[in-house]
Structure to design on (413 residues):
């Protein structure tokens, strides 16, 4: 059964087409006055959640209570979490608070970020990385976007696990060693700021659940004031904390030509430039679907720009890095993605080439007679999408009020 990572509250939806116009993959239609999500096109970016004026889109995530199904529970907090609290002077208050609300251990995903940065630098230095420019794959929404719309860039994608996946593997290993429990008796839970992480981590199998930060936040603010002096729990450095904001990953690729881009519209423009071979001198590109990076995730509490400032303040007296892959005794293969990236061919018109060409001609013919206003009145995000809906999904031509039939009585003399 297909799992949904964004759902619609039909009672709240007014059919206003805001979400339909903002969706980067044209995965939303408005039918019968209500939005409808085409899930096979959805990259779980959360843009529809962010822009809906009626709060009709809801992210799907695992309930906090599911942690109690395990004998030993490990939290994987991302560095974005530290920018969500007012007057926070020590991130150990947050980590100690997580232990107070039900977790038995903490493994910061910032540690996985530091290890991933080191592994990336090593791949580049050894000349074993994919073709340039290398596209970072920390953002699962960007990964899904490339596999859906930019098939030619599959070989540019960095074939390493994301920080959360690396942290989850190491956290479970540590918990088994510390407790003597079986791996299946240990619950490893990621605390997420975006639905795309729910999507990717649920498929990866490295975690047992993905919990919304917005739910954890209200539990933490009740417990953190009770902590007189937090325990020294943090084992992440400046490099790992920087992964929370756009540019943090790119900055850790020391001495190489690299840059960061955030916001889906900007990301798509850069991907087009990479497709056109305009960035061949660049070593590495960091891409973030959310503006500002992960601090811009729709499940966060704080404004992303304020959260970024708070995280930067917390980094002042932090060592550059506290984690080293050699000290862990892990080879580069430990950090690699064992599965090859597979393109999503849902946008392919037909498996049969002749039928696909026939459908393309029909789409082109319909599109030719439209007004090209992209008004959305038909319930599709663009005239091109409407043409596809008519041919592929049986949409009635009459739903376009501007459709112009060819003039069959035109005098061609």
């Amino acid at each position: 059964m297909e799992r949904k990572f964004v759902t619609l509250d039909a009672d709240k939806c007014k059919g206003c087409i805001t979400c339909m116009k903002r969706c980067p993959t044209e995965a939303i239609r408005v039918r019968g006055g209500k939005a409808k999500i085409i899930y096979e096109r959805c990259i779980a970016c959360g843009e529809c959640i962010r822009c809906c004026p009626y709060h009709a889109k809801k992210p799907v995530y695992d309930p906090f209570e599911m942690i109690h199904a395990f004998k030993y529970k490990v939290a994987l907090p991302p560095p974005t979490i530290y920018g969500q609290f007012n007057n926070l002077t020590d991130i150990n208050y947050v980590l100690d608070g997580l232990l107070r609300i039900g977790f038995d251990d903490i493994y910061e995903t910032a540690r996985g970020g530091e290890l991933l940065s080191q592994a990336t630098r090593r791949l580049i230095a050894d000349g074993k990385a994919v073709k340039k420019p290398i596209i970072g794959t920390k953002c699962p929404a960007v990964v899904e976007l490339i596999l859906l719309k930019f098939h030619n860039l599959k070989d540019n994608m960095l074939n390493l696990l994301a920080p959360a996946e690396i942290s989850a593997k190491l956290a479970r290993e540590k918990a088994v060693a510390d407790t003597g429990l079986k791996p299946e008796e240990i619950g490893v839970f990621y605390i997420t700021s975006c639905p795309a992480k729910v999507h990717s981590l649920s498929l990866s199998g490295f975690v047992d659940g993905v919990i919304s930060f917005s739910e954890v936040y209200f539990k933490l603010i009740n417990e953190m004031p009770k902590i007189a002096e937090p325990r020294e729990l943090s084992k992440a450095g400046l490099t790992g904390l920087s992964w929370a904001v756009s540019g943090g990953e790119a900055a850790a690729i020391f001495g190489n030509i690299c840059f960061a881009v955030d916001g889906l519209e900007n990301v798509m423009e850069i991907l087009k430039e990479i497709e056109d071979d305009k960035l061949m001198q660049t070593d590495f590109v960091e891409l973030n679907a959310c503006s500002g990076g992960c601090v811009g995730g729709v499940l966060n509490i704080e404004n992303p720009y304020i959260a970024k400032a708070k995280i930067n303040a917390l980094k002042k007296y932090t060592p550059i890095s506290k984690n080293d892959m050699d000290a862990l005794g892990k080879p580069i293969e430990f950090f690699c993605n064992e599965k090859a990236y597979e393109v999503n061919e849902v946008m392919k018109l037909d498996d049969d080439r002749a039928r696909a060409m026939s459908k393309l001609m029909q789409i082109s013919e319909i599109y030719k007679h439209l007004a090209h206003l992209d008004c959305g009145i038909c319930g599709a995000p663009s005239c091109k999408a409407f043409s596809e809906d008519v041919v592929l999904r049986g949409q009635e031509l009459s739903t376009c009020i501007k459709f112009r039939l060819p003039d069959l009585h035109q005098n061609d003399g």
